[in-house]
Amino acid sequence: MNQDNPFGEIVYTYTRAQALADGVQVDVTKTAQEAGIKFPVFITRTVFDAYVAVPPNVSGQDEAGRLWDIIWMLRFAILRTRPEESRIVVALYVRNDNRAAKLVKLIGTCGPLDIDKPEPAITVMMPDED
Q1: Of 125, 103, 113, 128, whose CA–CA distance to 25 is shortest?
Q2: Structural contact between residues 63 and 54, judged by C-beta atoms closer than 8 angstroms
Q3: Sign of the CA dihedral running 79, 77, 35, 117
Q4: Which of 19, 22, 73, 122 is deepest in the core (most CB within 10 A)?
Q5: Alpha-carbon 2 to chain mean position
Q6: CA 74, CA 81: separation in Å to the nearest integer?
Q7: Phi/psi of residue 38, each to 5°?
Q8: CA gap 115, 68 in Å, rounded
Q9: Which candidate, 55, 32, 59, places its Cα nearest to that of 43?
Q10: Which stretch of DSSP H or E encloses residue 87?
């Protein structure tokens, strides 16, 4: 142990660039910018598959609209968040069948863009994915 590395040698890292290349995260920055969010925004593959991808035989839905709903509600969650909060709840209604929409709660966090890029980025994930 030394002062430069108090926890010891790094055994393994997994960068955001690797997560994007592997498909574990999805870059939705363009849509987020259209909604007025200035930081890059990423969603996990789990969120994409569960709430952006349209389930088979569900009518009146498309991926662009479902993604917009998530990003728009993220924007509102950001606006009502206090500065000291590191995690925000993003709540919205999602219809994954041809019945009534159900309330879904996601988590948004802000952290470094990548291991070697300290500028801020937002990640939206399922509550159990952190």
Answers
A1: 125
A2: yes
A3: positive
A4: 122
A5: 35
A6: 10
A7: -85, -25
A8: 28
A9: 32
A10: strand 87-94
CA-to-CA distance for 115 and 61, rounded, in angstroms? 36
Nearest Cα neighbor of 32 from 71, 66, 73 is 71
- What letter would DSSP give residue 80? T
Neighbour count for residue 13 (Cβ, 10 Å): 8
**Could you write out the DSSP letters of every residue in 25-55?**
EEE-HHHHHHTT--S-EEEEHHHIIIIISPP
- The enclosing H or E element of 62 equals none
- pLDDT tens for each residue of 7-55: 777 788 899 999 999 999 999 999 999 999 999 999 999 999 999 999 9
pTM of the predicted structure, to 2 decimals? 0.89
CA dist 127 and 130 (Å) reads 7
What are the pLDDT digits (tens) for 48-94?
999 999 999 999 999 999 999 999 999 999 999 988 888 999 999 99
